[in-house]
Amino acid sequence: MNTAPSLRVEALVSGRLAASSRFRVLQHVGPLQRFGIEVHAEPPRISKYASLPPAARRHPRFVRSAKVGLTAAKLAVRLPHVARSWRADLSWLEREVLPGSVTLETLLHRPLLFDVDDAIWLPSSAHERAARTVAARSACVMAGNDFLADWFSSVAPDVERVWTAVDTDRFTPGPAPEEFVVGWTGSGHTLRFIERLRAPLAHFLAVARDARLLVMADVAPDLSGLPGDRVDFVKWTAENEAAALRRLSVGIMPLRDSDWGRGKCAFKMLQYLACGVPAVVSPVGLGAEILAMGDVGLAARNDDEWVETLLALRAEPDRARRLGLAGRALVERRFSVPVIAGQIASCMRRHA
Fold first, then answer.
1. Is 180 helix (H, G, I), strand (E, B) or coil?
2. Which residues fall within 8 angstroms of residue 65, CB to CB, at 6 or more apart?
C-alpha cells in the first residue's frame, strides 16, 4: 500500500454528530491514508439537520423568514467544500446536501461518489426526484445494503454495495454483565420503534424480575407501563456509546417490515455484535441477512416472539455469550473498518 497520497478526495458530510457522517465517512479518513488516499472531510459548522429553536417557532410571523435564513446558512457553510472539490480528484457526497432537494450537488467537481445508507427517496416525490438527480450525476452510488443498491441501479451509472463499518478497536466486548440487561440504542427519530415494544418488554420484565432495560438515545423515550426502577436511560454521546453497549446482555433492533425498514443498514445490530452482545432483531433487510451469515442472534417477528427470545437468552447465558462472540468474529471478518475501507479505496480508484 502507498503512504504518499496519490488520490485526493473532498468529502461533504451532513454534520459532526450525524451517524451517517461518522460511520460512512469520517471514521474512514485515517484508514484510507494507508491506501494512498487523502480525504478532506471537515464537518460543517451547521448540521443539515439543524432546526429552528423552540423560541423562534413561537413567532409564526417570522418562522418562514427564519427557515429561509437557516437554509441559506446551511448552504453558505458548505460552499468552501464545494470550492475545494475542484482541487480534488474525486468528490464524496454523504447523502444529499439538504434532504429532499438538489442544491450544491450540481456545483461539485466530478467524478462524484454518492454515499447512501437509507431509503432517502421515500418521504416524498421531491425526495425521490432529488435522489434520482444526484445519482444520475454520480460516477457511482455507494449503497449501504442490497435493497438500496437495487433501487439506485436503475438511475446511477454504477452502484456498489458498501456496508457500514464498525470500529472494532473502539466497540469491543466487555466482561459478562452481572445483571441481565436488554438494551437499545438509537436517535430521537427512531424512538417510536422501542416505544412500540412497551407491551412485550413489560411482559418480559414482569417474568424476568432480575432483568433491566437500558435505552441510549439523545432524548428520553416514553416507556410508560414499564417498571421505572428497572429502566435506565443513558443520554447518548459519542464518548459513552461504546461503554454503554458493553453493559448489555442482549441488544434489540425492532423494525417495521417496509421499504423504509429494508433500507436500514442494521448498524445497531452491528454495534451490539462488535461488543460481543447477541442481537434480537426484526428479520428485515440487512438484519435478516446478518442472521443468515452466522449464529449471532435471534429473530423476533411479533410481540410473543420478542418475549420468548429474550426469556430464552436469559435462561441460557452461556448460549447468549457464544452468540455474542460469534457476532464479534463476524463483524471483524466482514464489517470492520479495515475491510470496508479497503473496499471504498478500490471503488475510489476505479472511478477517479
1. strand
2. none
pTM of this structure: 0.94
Q: Which CATH number is correct for 7-165+336-351, 3.30.430.20, 3.40.50.2000, 3.40.710.10, 3.90.1150.10?
A: 3.40.50.2000
Determine the Cα–Cα distance for residues 304 and 301; give it in Å rounded to an integer: 8
For residue 159, list its beta bridge partners: 141
If one counts every other C-beta atom within 10 angstroms of the C-beta of residue 231, the result is: 16
Instruction: Determine the pLDDT at residue 288.
Output: 97
CATH code of the domain made up of 180-335: 3.40.50.2000
Closest CA to 252 of 187, 201, 313, 182: 182
Can you tell me the distance from the alpha carbon of 11 to that of 81, in angstroms, rounded to the nearest whole number?
8
Domain ranges of the chain: 7-165+336-351, 180-335
Cα(first)–Cα(last) distance of the chain, in Å?
A: 17
Distance CA 341, CA 90 (A): 16
pLDDT tens per residue across span 274-308: 999 999 999 999 999 999 999 999 999 999 999 99
Whats the size of the chain, residue-wise? 352
Q: What is the pLDDT of residues 173-191, one digit of tens each?
A: 999 888 999 999 998 888 9
Q: Is the peptide bond before 80 cis (omega within 30 degrees of 0)?
A: no
Sign of the dihedral defined by the CA atoms of residues 52, 55, 56, 59, in that order: positive
Which SS3 state, helix, strand or coil, does residue 31 take?
helix
| 141 SS3 class | strand
